[in-house]
Amino acid sequence: MDLHKSPAPVAARPVPPADLRCSDADRDRVADLLRDALAEGRLTAEEHAERVEGVLSARTAGELDRFVQDLPAAHPHHPAAGAYAPPPNRPAPAPIPVEPDDHVVAVFSSAVRRGRWRPGRRMHAYAIFGSVEIDLSEAMFEYRQVVIRAISVFGSVDIRVPENVSLRGTGGGVLGSFEVSPLDSADQDAPVVHVDGLALLGSVDARPKRGKLVADILDRVSDKVSGKVDKALRRHLDR
User: Among the four 87, 113, 157, 182, which has the fewest Cβ within 10 Å?
Assistant: First the structure.
């Protein structure tokens, strides 16, 4: 009998999937999910920044999963995952021009757009040591999609929209504040205002103006200008 015979090797224990090391590609995938969640209003800018910072320092798959476990995109087979799909009335890249229809610039000054005015499809707002106010609460929407690019450097850009339009936002702040309060209109034909840009040592703030409604919304946003508006809806919009 060989007393010096080596013991049989012990089979290595399988590593749980959550303990596997994550790759840069894994981090990029989760960062993309967080970016989409921010665009859809599921995360605030502060929550997005905090989670992205955690994703960049994550070492395992389990650590990555923690940052998206409460988002429908991380559960494709869950019944709620369908809500993750981008809303159909989000501004499409094709119909929005690259060049802006209008510039609103405030350099060591202030600039205002308000009242009964007609916003174009794309508007650029720049506040450099100044303030810009864009009030769409009484605007006449001739287009369903309105994109506002707001750049604030040591200044402020304030955007207000009626309560019965949709409001979306993507952007960020560098030692500043970029805040968009997402809003979903119950009317599928309502205009969509999309705000993006950057706040550098400044602020960008976009939100609904309480009590303000676009009463002629259906006449302005669709090709059915000559059509009759449902009386019940008209009564609701006139309130």
Answer: 87
